[in-house]
Amino acid sequence: MEFMSDMLGGADAGKPSVFELVAQTKMTELLEPALRHITSVYAHRYPRYLIRILNLHEEVYAAVMLVVERHYLRNYGGSFTEHFYGMKRVRTRTIGGSKALTGGNVWGSLVFLVGLPLVKSRLDQYYDKISGGDAARLLGGAFAQERHIEADADVEDGAGVRADIRRRLVRLLAVARQLFQRFYPHVNFAYHLSTALYYVAYMFDRTGYSSPWLHVLGLQMRRLSAADYRAMDMRTGDTSGLAAAPNGSVLRGLRNIVARLLGGGLDVLRVALPLAIFFYRFLEWWYRSDFHQRVQQKPVPPPPMPLRPHPDGVGVPVDQTVCALCGRPRTNPAMLPTGFVFCYPCIHRHVADAGTCPVTLTLATVGDIRKLYADA
Ligand SMILES: [Zn+2]
Fold this sequence. Notes:
Layout: H1 2-7, H2 18-45, H3 47-55, H4 57-76, H5 80-84, E1 87-91, H6 103-130, H7 133-139, H8 142-153, H9 161-203, H10 212-217, E2 219-223, H11 226-240, H12 250-288, H13 291-296, E3 333-335, E4 341-343, H14 344-354, E5 370-371
Antiparallel strand pairs: 1-2, 3-4, 3-5
The structure holds zinc ion (ZN).
Zinc ion is lined by residues 323, 325-326, 342-343, 346.
């Protein structure tokens, strides 16, 4: 029982449990695909503006999160999801009697919150590209190597000093690429292993740091206390008393209003982003379950009845493979919207001359004729 209460952070009420930290990380990982999904849905509707954003999605997302996370770190002492789970970051060393984050701590946190995931995702993509992606995983490394040899062969021709330098540069890049290809999986493994080890050590109280990045920054996670919430309320209360701001400085007043509007917008995200994740999860479930298929599967309606042949028309031949116009077996079958099929040359000539369907005598143009690719 003691062990369980330790896992739940029972001994130190301010220490978040591993479960809270993992949940927080999972939520961070869900934000990006959720927003990407919503962007791609709207990109279908407004492709002119959103396709560009979609192509640069990771960079745009990083830029947006830089603003969001900076706002939350500065005002609430934790990242967006950390604050959502009622946590904050504190310095392990007190400076001036306070453990609150300094400007340097905020930027250091941003490097690991926004910069590192972006760089890692780019490196992952690059590794997938040079190692041949899924094809190489299935067919073995030979597939990827063949592609490189092909690429290198392109620059092997040419003479002179410049070509020589180029050739050397290409070879150097090839060596760098090979080294990267060889060692990146190990780096990646170390990355995941270190975070896992930190979680375990944190769970057994061997370290106060829940991740290697926080250790580097000298920051620890704490639960938000009642005093923290009161302090936050006080601060938002302070800024609302804008009328009492020192008089004379119109510019500062304006700046305050802009900052408050921006801050208010960013605070709305506390509701909007979790809703986006919920929406994304719902869509995921919706498309994966057979529930939506059951809703969408309506019985196929009967085809519309063909128009009745006009008494003054050419009439429908008894043999359905015969063209009503020439009386011979159809060649190059073509159809009118009325549903009757003729030889293409016959119906083209007839419609060009008479402008009607020969059977029903309804109006038709040459543009209405549809070629049939399976002989009826
Ligand atoms: Zn014909």
